[in-house]
Specification:
By secondary structure, the chain is mainly alpha-helical. The protein has 13 helices and no strands. The chain has three domains: 71 residues, lambda repressor-like DNA-binding domains (434 Repressor (Amino-terminal Domain), Orthogonal Bundle), CATH 1.10.260; 70 residues, lambda repressor-like DNA-binding domains (434 Repressor (Amino-terminal Domain)); 37 residues.
Length: 249
């Protein structure tokens, strides 16, 4: 057997054992599918914000037909257009890179009538006001003088007998060295929603470099370490700091 025959046999063997060539990708179908998914996300986000097609189109400077074509996946917005959409719908642009739909954004569904809620919260605020006053070791008369009200009205506030207007509440909070958020609802669906808004507001007030650091998923381990350290007793935290100094020195 000469060399050419041996070479031919090796070549044939390789062809028989080689993996099949990958199927050619149909990019037209891929793009059409992506367009339909993006359309569903757009429609879901628009409806979650209680906007009509006409309202969104006007906000974007586009025609209703264009927005409708996007939502049906017949056409797709460019990235700059998608950025404007995300801005108008109060969403990160990355939301439209995935497949996760939004839960409908609705006002908190109170389990009690608004009038009942106000009366109940009025009493709870009165209790918190009483606790804060006792914590500050102030009499009704002393707090009344510090907050620009009278003792009789203040007593009615504490018993929840009359509504406490917010300007007066702010003065009482300053006198008691409490933030107005001390009096906010913090339980139930409405309380959770209010707490989330407060947390987001505080996050937005952080320095830009800290917000950027927290927003990076890769930095999550560092944040978890910081959280664990914050829960350590002071003596253990001091010991950890000393060990770090020993390592670095």
């Amino acid at each position: 057997m000469d060399f050419s025959e041996i070479s031919a046999r090796f070549r044939k063997k390789r062809e028989e054992t080689a993996p099949p060539a990958p199927a050619e990708r149909n990019f037209a179908e891929i793009h059409a599918l992506r367009a339909r998914v993006l359309g569903v996300l757009l429609r879901d986000a628009r409806q979650a914000n209680n906007l009509s097609i006409a309202e969104l189109a006007a906000a974007l400077g586009e025609s209703e037909a264009t927005v409708e074509a996007w939502e049906f996946g017949l056409e797709s917005p460019s990235l700059p257009q998608l950025e404007l959409i995300a801005y108008r719908l109060n969403l990160p642009v990355s939301h439209f890179f995935g497949t996760q739909m939004l839960e409908r954004k609705r006002q908190p569904d109170l389990s009690i009538a608004p009038q009942e809620y106000v009366l109940l919260r009025q009493r709870v605020i009165g209790i918190r006001l009483t606790l804060a006053r006792r914590e500050a070791r102030l009499s009704l008369e002393e707090l009344a003088k510090l907050s620009g009200t009278d003792a009789e009205t203040l007593s009615a506030y504490e018993f929840g007998q009359i509504p406490l207007p917010f300007p007066q509440l702010a003065s009482l909070a300053i006198a008691l060295r409490k933030a107005p958020s001390y009096f906010l609802e913090d339980v139930g669906q409405l309380g959770g929603w209010l707490a989330l808004q407060e947390a987001y507001e505080r996050f937005c007030e952080l320095p830009e470099e800290i917000r950027a650091f927290v927003s990076q998923p890769n930095n999550l381990p560092y944040l978890e370490i910081a959280l664990r350290l914050s829960r350590l007793p002071l003596s253990e935290l001091r010991a950890v700091g000393e060990k770090i100094l020993d390592i670095t020195l």
